[in-house]
Write a structure and sequence with these properties.
CATH class: Mainly Beta
Number of strands: 9
Strand content: 35-45%
Largest sheet: 6 strands, antiparallel, barrel
Shape: globular
CATH architecture: Beta Barrel
CATH superfamily: predicted glycosyltransferase like domains
Number of helices: 1
Radius of gyration: 15 Å
Order of helices and strands: EEEEEEEEEH
């Protein structure tokens, strides 16, 4: 991410994880929805590959679906706002910032899966500041 005012990189607070799954994108007040492929996820946002433009600044509701560690299809919902969007050939790359960070109370299946991925594959903890252990 680049700080546009100073043209310098901005360090992200949360670790990103590659994530295999889909997200059904719904914009409140619009009749249609779009299914996107998930690129990556963090506790504070998600990267998507969408066949349709959503629009920067739009509020979205996402139904995130994935195959959990036991081979079952699971899903959870999360809300956010499109932070950025860029067209790449025939798809749209979209970054969504969540309204609230993911947690085990509101997204138990998704957080459970992230915890499983972190532990199974010895991935870095979600918070980049090593002094804080969140999980």
């Amino acid at each position: 991410m680049i700080n546009k005012k100073k043209n310098t990189p901005v360090e992200r607070q949360w670790q990103r994880y590659l994530f295999i799954g889909t997200a059904k994108i719904r914009v409140p007040g619009e009749r249609t929805s779009t299914t996107a492929t998930i690129s990556n996820i963090s506790v504070s946002g998600i990267g998507l590959y969408s066949p349709k433009s959503i629009g920067k600044g739009k509020t979205v509701k996402l139904k995130v679906s994935f195959i959990d560690g036991k081979g079952r299809i699971s899903d959870d919902t999360v809300e956010g706002k499109v932070d950025w969007q860029s067209k790449f050939r025939g798809i749209y790359l979209i970054g969504v910032l969540f309204n609230e960070e993911l947690d085990t109370k509101n997204q138990p299946k998704l957080m459970g899966h992230l915890l499983w991925l972190i532990e199974t594959f010895t991935l870095p903890q979600p918070y980049k500041d090593k002094r804080i252990a969140t999980l």
